[in-house]
Amino acid sequence: MRVGLLPNEGGGSYRFVIIALAIVGILISSLPVIVVTIMSFSAADNTGFPPEALSLRWYWDVIALFTADDASSAQSVVDSTLTSLLVAVIVMGISTFVCIPLAYALARGDRRIRGGMELLFTLPLVFPLVILGIAFLLIAESLRVDIGIWRIVIPHVALVLPFVLRNCLGAMNGISVEIEEAAVSLGASPLRAIWDVVIPLMKAGILAGLIFALIISFNEFTITFFMYTIDVSTLPIWMYSRTVSSLDPSTLALSVFIIVADVVLIVLVDKLIAGRASLF
Amino acid sequence: MSIALSRSRALAFSLPALIAILPFLGACFYIFRFSISGDKGTIDGYSIQPYLDLMTPFFGRSVWLTLKLAFVATLVAMLLAVPLAFLLTSLRSPLARRCLTVTILLPLILNLLVQAYGWILLLGPSGVLNSSLRSLGIIDRPIFLLFNETGVLLGLIQTSLPLAVFPIVSSVRGLSQEHLEAASSLGASQWRTFFDVTVPLLRPGLFGAASIVFAFNASAFAIPLLLGGRRVQMMGVAIRDMISPLFNWSGAAAAGMILIFITLIVLLFSSWLVRMTSENVRH
């Protein structure tokens, strides 16, 4: 007999309480996103619930927002979206590029060093983002030169490193030394064995790390809130400055685009690392 | 064989990542150096004045509020995370499992603004909750849930829930089936098995998850800013206010050091608890 943590039948009050709490958890997780999605289809100008009629007008508004060439606003939504994407892609590239060799060195190297290094690269995960934002702002302000987009890229790289490294390490764990030894004994140089044998085997983990870096950087708000300037600003900052006084339905439609993109990417990550590693 | 990684090659492989994390370490040091600066606006000399200046009832209230909200949010998140982890690990259908994973993970990753919009639409005076309750005739006047502690608390629970669920999922996967079977074949009820077998076995994972959730909640910034307004001065928001209207950089740095100190204490305390309890389990 298989004794589950969640009995399929019977179980009385235990099963009821566990299921009820799980449902509350699911509701708390999903309700805000669901409500944003419903309200974005409202035909009304205000955000009263329930919407009296449904329409796509706010979606057309968003598309108009992106296609109108209105040069009057200093920082348009198109500029900030492009900056967001550019930052996310650079962050994704750098973090993956540095984490692959590190994951290899940690998996094959000294066990004692591994623990310490893993701890070091987990630090940004628990470090208060506000403090990080202020610290990076202080450093950027004290520099004599304008570092442009890098003022956002550099903090974002630190922020995504834990996630990318975790995925690369998870991928390395499944690769035994024997495969590499086989390649070397067949005449490949050790570097060549890494490039031709290990990296292709790590592919799923590397891809999952890439996507993680992309979504985290693209959605990051707190650090960017301190670092943005008039010239370098991202989409979340644009949304914040637009809704700081009141909530406007076209921002909700824009939010739905972001939600859909995020869901698609998370499903991809989940597929890539299915069952082999934990998400973080 | 030349597979064994030489020290120099291991260093060469680690170097790019160490360079990438260097700005972060620099930022940590910079904030510490600023917090003991003699001047409010620049790094100049040494002084503990920034810390002494924080000894005000206002900042004390902010620390207390931060600890209180983070603690309650962590407690609720853990209470919801354990059943969610059980559900996630016992789902048979891959599709259902994937849907649940996405639902739980999304709040951690999705733009915090979008989630704040969701809560504003849900809890606002003409929001979903108030209109539903009013049309059911339960209330006459809207109840205020936004821009006070309730709204912030809900937001914190929602965004930190994934940080609790996924570590617990990995602990649950590591749970040995034999223990549960033994308990149930000896006639223990479901509740009895849960409290006497499952929870003690999961305890190290639970403490680990709770400490990360607490650290995350204590240092929250966007959620209290967007859902609490100026009324709920958690430390993150209070620190921002020291900079933005007041330009008290050294004070903000000192307050930041206190926040880091609090999260560090909690993390160390919980890793100590984990070590204590996992020793107990082994005996």
From TrEMBL, chain A:
Report the GO terms under cellular component: plasma membrane
Q: Which domain of life is it from?
A: Bacteria
Q: Which UniProt keywords apply?
A: Cell inner membrane, Cell membrane, Membrane, Transmembrane, Transmembrane helix, Transport
The family database entries (PROSITE patterns) matched by this protein are listed as: ABC_TM1
Name the Pfam families on file.
BPD_transp_1
**Which cellular compartments is it found in?**
Cell inner membrane; Cell membrane
GO biological process terms on file = transmembrane transport
The UniProt record lists the ABC transmembrane type-1 domain at 81-269
Which segment of the chain is annotated as a signal peptide? none
The membrane spanning regions, by residue number, are 12-41, 85-107, 119-141, 147-165, 206-230, 250-269
Gene3D superfamilies noted in UniProt: MetI-like
**Record's family?**
Belongs to the binding-protein-dependent transport system permease family.
Recorded protein name is Putative spermidine/putrescine transport system permease protein
Q: Which organism is it from?
A: Litoreibacter albidus
TrEMBL record, chain B:
Q: Where in the cell is it found?
A: Cell membrane
**Major location category of this protein:** membrane
Top-level taxon: Bacteria
Which part of the chain is the ABC transmembrane type-1 domain? 63-270
Mode of membrane association: Multi-pass membrane protein
Q: Where does the sequence pass through the membrane?
A: 12-32, 63-88, 100-123, 143-169, 206-227, 247-274
Stored Gene3D superfamilies: MetI-like
UniProt-listed InterPro entries:
MetI-like, MetI-like_sf
Coiled coil, from the record = none
User: What are the GO BP annotations of this UniProt entry?
Assistant: transmembrane transport
Could you tell me which Pfam families the record lists for this protein? BPD_transp_1
Q: Give a GO cellular-component term.
A: plasma membrane
What keywords are assigned to this protein? Cell membrane, Membrane, Transmembrane, Transmembrane helix, Transport
Query: PROSITE patterns under this entry?
Result: ABC_TM1, PROKAR_LIPOPROTEIN
The family assignment reads: Belongs to the binding-protein-dependent transport system permease family. CysTW subfamily.
Q: What is this protein called?
A: Putative spermidine/putrescine transport system permease protein
Q: Write down the species.
A: Litoreibacter albidus
